[in-house]
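Q: Joint fold for the lines below.
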Amino acid sequence: MRGILIKGNREKAEHFIREVKGKEPIFLCVIGSSEVGKIPGISAAGKNPEFTDYTPPADVELLLYGKCKCISGIPVTPEGIPTPAIITMSALELANIPVFIVNGGVRVKPHVPFIDLGGTHGDDIRKGSAVANVEEVIERARLVGKMFAKSSDYLVIGESMPGGTTTALAVMLAMGVDAVGKVSSSMPSNPHELKLKVVNEGMKAINIRFGDLKNDPIKALSHLGDPMLTAFSGLILGAGEEVPILMAGGTQMAAILAVVKAMNDKVLRNLYLGTTRWIVQDRTSDLLGIVRQIHDLGILVANLNFSPSKYEGLRVYEKGFVKEGVGAGGAAIAAILKSRGKITPKVLFERIERNYERLIGI
Amino acid sequence: MRGILIKGNREKAEHFIREVKGKEPIFLCVIGSSEVGKIPGISAAGKNPEFTDYTPPADVELLLYGKCKCISGIPVTPEGIPTPAIITMSALELANIPVFIVNGGVRVKPHVPFIDLGGTHGDDIRKGSAVANVEEVIERARLVGKMFAKSSDYLVIGESMPGGTTTALAVMLAMGVDAVGKVSSSMPSNPHELKLKVVNEGMKAINIRFGDLKNDPIKALSHLGDPMLTAFSGLILGAGEEVPILMAGGTQMAAILAVVKAMNDKVLRNLYLGTTRWIVQDRTSDLLGIVRQIHDLGILVANLNFSPSKYEGLRVYEKGFVKEGVGAGGAAIAAILKSRGKITPKVLFERIERNYERLIGI
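A: Joint structure:
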C-alpha cells in the first residue's frame, strides 16, 4: 500500500493490510503523566520539565477540538517544535476516524471527555514507586478494550506520556528485554545515560536486577512503569483476543508488548505495530532490535515526509526532532488504510501543514 | 416484530424497526445523582433516601461486571424489589451489545470505567440550584455523542438518576410542557403532590412560572434539572444528526426531548422512544400524553411479562413496582432487534430470572 513501508514480519504486516483495508477503526489515545517526566533532561514533551503535566491533556484537546484548552497555543518542545498530535489530528480528521481518550492517570485533567479508569499520576521510579493501583486500572482498561472490540473492526491505540521512554526502559530491563541504548527520544540527542541512571536507581530501590521481573509484569508496572503503560496493556488484554490492534508508537510499544505477552500470549497474534519512518531511521534508538527480542511482529511504517514544508517547525522532524507520539504513525497508517490509499502521505502532509498554520497562527 | 408493541407515531416506529433490524447498536448508560433524590418520599431507587447516591454506580457496575462493587448485593427499593438494571444487563449480555457508561455527575463514582464529562452531583432544586456547569457538560457530551455516532449503526441510551422524574417534571413545567400528575414513579403509589411541591418551590426560588423557560433549556437545566438530563441531552445533540437514537426510559425522556427540541430540532427526526409495557400501562402516569405535547415520536414498547416468575421480586413488576429504569425497555428492544427476533421476551425473561437467582443468591 502506497505510503506504508513494512518492517518486522512482512507476512503478518501484509496480512494486516489485507484484513483491515477499507474497514472502520476506532482510535484510542491513552494519556498519563508522572514525576519521571519532570526529571530535568528526560523529556522534551513540553517546553520545560514542569510543563510536561500539561502536554497529555493539551494533546488530546487538540485531537478532539482541533485546539488546546488547558494551555494557549499547542505543546512544543523546548526548541518550539510542535507536538506530533498535529499529525494524528490531521489523519483522524481526514479519514473521519472516531477517537476516544483513555485516562491512565494524569495530574492535569483534559478539558475534553475522557474514559476514567480510576488511575492516578505516576510517581518517581527512582524511589521504586510508579503506579498505585496497577491491577485495578488493568481490570478496568480490559473492560474498556472489550467494549471497543465489540464496536469496531480494529483498534489503533496511541499515547501521550512525557518521560515514557524512560519508564518503558525500566519495565523492559526489569522484564529481561535488553533495551539499553535502544529506546527513542523526542530529542535528536537521546539522553541514554540519564535514562539508564534513573532506571538503575529505581531497580536498586526495589532490589532487582535485569530480568528479575520477567514473569511479574504487575510488579514491574507498579514499581517502574507508568500510568500509560498500565492502561494501554489493559486495553490490549481486553480487545486483543477479538480484533486486530495497531499499537501506534515507538519504543514504548515494546514495553507494552512485553507486559501483555507475560499476561496473555493469546493476544499476540492480533497485535501489529504502527510507527513513523523517523523512528525506524533513527540512529540513536533501535525499535526493531527491541521488538525482535519479544515477538516477531508485523510492523507498518508511515512514510511521511516533511522536507518540502514551508515551516522549520515541521522540516526539523526530518532531522530527528520529535519523530513520533500521540499515535501519529499509526493514525496516518489507519487513514491511508481506511481510505484504501486515497489519503496519500502527500494529502496528509498538506492537511498537516494547513493545521500547523492555523494553530501557530501564521 | 414479536415482543415489541408500538405506540405514538406508528409509521415512524415501524421505520425504525426496518432500519435497525440486525444492525449493531451501542448502549450508553448515563448516570447522575442529586440532592433531590434524597428528599424523603421522592425516590424509591435505593432502600432509603441517603442510599440513592449508591444506586447509579451500583447499577452500572451490574451492567459491566454482572455484579455490584460499591455495595453488597444489588440496588433495591425500600420494599426489596431489585433494580431494573437486571433486565438491561440480561438483554445486553444475550445480544452481545457493547455498553459504555457516561457520568453526567455523581457523588459516588462507580468502580468501573466511565466517560467523564467534568460534571458534578446535582444540587437541590428547591433552592433553584441544580447543575453547576450545564454548557460545559453539554459540550463534552456532544463530542462523545459525535464519536459514538461514528462507531455504531445506532445508539440506545438509558439512565440511572434517582429523583429523576421530579427534576424532569421541573424542567418540563419550566419549558411549558404540562406534565403535572403525569410523570412516572418507581413506586406504585406515585407521590405526585410531593413532586409538584418540590418543583413549585424551585420555580418560586428563581421566580419563574409555567413555560417561562420554553426557549431557555440551559437555564431550565441549570436551576431545575439534573446531571443526567444535561449529559443525555448533549449526547443526543452530538449524535442525533448522524444516527438513529432509541431513548430508553420513561417520562424523563420527555424532558430530554423538550430540551433537545429547543436546542436543535434537526435531531428530532432521528429520535425514538423505547420503554416497557409497565410504563405505558401505568395509570398513575401518562408518558404518551406528555410526549405528544412535544413531538410526534415513534414509540417502541418491550412486551416483557414477569407474571410467570417464581420470584415475588420480579412478579411485582406486574403490579407497577419499578416499571422501568437503566434503559431496561430500550435494551430489551435492542436485543430483540439485533437478533432479528431470535431473542424473544420469553428468552429474555428466562435470562433475567437466572441472573436474579444468581444475584439474590437463591
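Q: Anything notable?
A: Chain A touches chain B through 28 residues (CB under 8 Å). Chain A is about 40% helix and 10% strand.
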